[in-house]
Amino acid sequence: MITEKIDLYKWAGVERKGEEKGYLYSFRHMVVTEMNVRKTRPAILIFPGGGYCFVSQREGEPIALQYLAQGFDCFVLDYDIAPAHRYPVPLVQAGMAMMYLRREADKLNIDGEHIAAIGFSAGGHLCGCISLLWDDPALKAMWGEECERIRPDASVYSYPVVSSDKAVAHVGSFDNLCADLVDRKDYSLDKKVRPSAKPSFIWANSPDDCVPVENSILLYSALHKAGVPAELHIYADGWHGMSTCDEEVNEGDVSDPMFRHIRTWLPLSAEFLKRFGFVVKNV
């Protein structure tokens, strides 16, 4: 496995203005030189959650290793957070990460037309921002018309923060990202779905008392109404932040069948992506 830490600011030639993070961590398959064939792999960009006030370790490397086993090359974004950094910093860093993958696809031996994104909780919101708001003013100012390339070729939303409606919102995430800098309604993802969005897989847990499951339902409904291929899985049990649902990310006993059942989101999401061409190719 090839691991690497990429400074996205250095790569993009952008001066840091107090930003501390904006680093991309790669988990890539090694090139097997003894085989007389070159392989390109689908890629997935991973956004851990944390309410825009921390970046969860449980939703970074453990997720990358799972998708790596499914043939993906994986990249985890460590992005800046509140209170020191708010909009547009996380969104700009997410955009830089996707543009890095697009522009360096050949060098990385990844399929530049099959780059997915996955996000967890507030990371799901960040995933949604580049999936649905790829032409956000901050991204367009940086990349011009090329900002369309920031949009992933498919998206996976894991118990995502979606709506700014106070009845269902994870208010802390919107406070931390938007503060009084931008109108949080403009970052309510369920209101920003367009038919040009790409295939989307969503999963959540009904008893989630942190980010209400209605967020996932609203997002699915908006995608379905717009004619975007979408799949929604809501589990009857569980709680917020279950990630890979195994001993790597949980302190307690994971032998309960509930964990095994909810863990099915991983192969289901990989199968969903493969249906849309996210497969290893010989070139």
From TrEMBL:
Record-linked SUPFAM superfamilies: alpha/beta-Hydrolases
Taxonomy, superkingdom: Bacteria
A GO molecular-function annotation: hydrolase activity
Chain ranges passing through the membrane: none
Transmembrane helix in keyword set: no
Keywords, sorted A to Z: Hydrolase
Domain BD-FAE-like: 36-136
Keyword Hydrolase: yes
PANTHER family: AB HYDROLASE SUPERFAMILY PROTEIN C4A8.06C (PTHR48081), PEPTIDASE S9 PROLYL OLIGOPEPTIDASE CATALYTIC DOMAIN-CONTAINING PROTEIN (PTHR48081:SF6)
Entry protein name: Alpha/beta hydrolase
UniProt organism field: Candidatus Borkfalkia faecipullorum
Lineage, uppermost ranks: Bacteria, Bacillati, Bacillota, Clostridia, Christensenellales
